[in-house]
């Protein structure tokens, strides 16, 4: 099958695609062979470019924002109990990261190090089970972070972490009647009634792109033995519950002598989840 550039004046679509099977007139947008043009979602594997798709125009960023996360104190246990893992209600914080002027709720990407920050991502951990979780979200005027922290037997330390933000503009509505135009003076290409324009800053898929990675094709978190495993966008796994954490019974003699604890099985993740696939992307 041939690779085809084609537009349809009736629908305003423009696409580059491999023809579908079925034949029909080459110049008829409604031929079976040209189905990727007007039925793109069912022919994704054939499509290289389509004016219906949102190619994620970068409106702001990359912008680095440093957040000074406060320490989280351990929970005071009730009399006769020992706390090995807990949540302090004062550890929940909602903070402003960035103010934008888009006037609508945009798509946002954020990275910490080389990993995209997904909702509820553990951004800090300690070996005794203390973890700080963060969710980055947007409103019509702001990008904000909701965080909360849990502790093990010791205080979760304060941390200064730098997050990199990308904020995307919505795909513009079609305007005018031009389906394809190339300006030889400026080198700018317009397609699909200006839904796509090559001088806009679109997210790029680049092997080894930095610093953004996107997990795709499935979930990124698994549960086993009552504990979670999160797989980052670079493919590495994170288990916030350490293997040393386990349920225990206190052995206290009738004379008051403390004989220590009897520990049961560990409460850590015991599965084999490796996560979905990943691609690396970057801002232009």
Description:
The protein has one helix at residues 35-38, and strands at 3-8, 13-18, 47-50, 57-69, 86-87, 93-99, 108-112, 115-116, 121-125, 131-138, 142-151, 159-169, 180-182, 189-191, 196-197, 204-205, 212-216, 221-224, 227-231, 237-238, 246-252, 258-266, 277-282. The protein is an all-beta fold and 284 residues long. Among the domains are: 3-53 and 180-197, no CATH class; 57-170 and 204-211. The strands form seven sheets. Strands 5, 6, 9, 10 and 11 form a five-stranded antiparallel beta sheet that branches. A four-stranded antiparallel beta sheet has the order 4-12-7-8, with no helix packed on it. A hairpin with a 5-residue loop joins strand 21 and strand 22 (258-266). The longest helix is centred in the N-terminal third of the chain and has 4 residues, at 35-38. It starts with a strand and ends with a strand. The mean pLDDT is 84.
What does this entry show, briefly?
The chain is mostly beta strands and 284 residues long. It contains one helix and 23 strands. The strands form seven sheets. Strands 5, 6, 9, 10 and 11 form a five-stranded antiparallel β-sheet that branches. It has a four-stranded antiparallel β-sheet with strand order 4-12-7-8, with no helix packed on it. A three-stranded antiparallel β-sheet has the order 1-2-3.
């Amino acid at each position: 099958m041939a690779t085809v550039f084609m537009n349809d004046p009736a629908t305003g679509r423009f696409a580059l695609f491999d023809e579908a099977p079925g034949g029909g007139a080459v110049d008829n947008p409604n031929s079976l062979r040209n189905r990727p043009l007007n039925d793109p979602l069912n022919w994704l594997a054939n499509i290289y470019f389509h004016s219906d798709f949102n190619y994620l125009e970068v409106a702001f960023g990359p912008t680095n924002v440093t957040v000074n996360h406060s320490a989280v104190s351990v929970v005071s246990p009730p009399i006769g109990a020992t706390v090995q893992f807990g949540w302090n209600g004062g550890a929940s914080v909602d903070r402003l990261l960035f103010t934008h002027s888009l006037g609508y709720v945009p798509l946002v990407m954020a990275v910490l190090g080389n990993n995209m920050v997904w909702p509820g991502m553990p951004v800090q951990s300690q070996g005794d089970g203390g973890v700080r979780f963060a969710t980055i979200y947007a409103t019509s005027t702001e990008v904000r972070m909701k965080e909360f922290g849990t502790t093990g037997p010791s205080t979760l330390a304060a941390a200064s972490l730098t997050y990199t933000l990308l904020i995307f503009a919505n795909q513009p509505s079609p305007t005018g009647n031009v389906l394809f135009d190339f300006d030889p003076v400026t080198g700018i290409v317009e397609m699909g009634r200006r839904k796509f324009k090559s001088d806009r800053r679109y997210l790029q898929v680049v092997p080894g792109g930095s610093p953004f990675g996107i997990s795709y094709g499935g979930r990124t978190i698994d549960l086993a033995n009552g504990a979670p495993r999160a797989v980052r966008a670079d493919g590495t796994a994170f288990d916030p519950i350490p293997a040393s954490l386990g349920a225990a019974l206190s052995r206290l003699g009738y004379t008051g002598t403390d004989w220590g604890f009897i520990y049961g099985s560990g409460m850590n993740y015991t599965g084999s989840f490796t996560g979905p696939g990943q691609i690396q992307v970057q801002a232009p």
